[in-house]
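User: Hi! I'm working on a homework problem where we have to compare a predicted structure to a textbook description. Could you give me the structure for the chain below?
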Amino acid sequence: MPESRAARVLLAAWCTVAPLQTAVAADPARLKIVAIAPGYGGEAVAGKRWTIYLDGFIDIGAADRMRRLVKRESISDALVYFNSPGGHLVEAMALGACCGSVLSKPT
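Assistant: Happy to help. Predicted structure tokens:
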């Protein structure tokens, strides 16, 4: 069964970024944040938008980590994928506000 081109790019991006997340992966009670730049791997999977994956328990400090990432990388437009079983309510609300500032708007 042939793999899709986007799946291969995503897998390649994850394999490259995942080792950088070892400290986060070692703590399952912490939200993992992975950001993939537009055109990473030579293909513009999401056009000129960043792709951000948020995965895991929403811990205290998650919104601050997201804000720092957005500021450091100057992210102004992103597709955000969220997979979380829950976590700290106030932190989740702050994270939602942060994501709302960079979420891709329908065109």
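For your comparison, note the following. The longest helix spans residues 89-102. The two ends are 34 Å apart (CA to CA). Good luck with the assignment!
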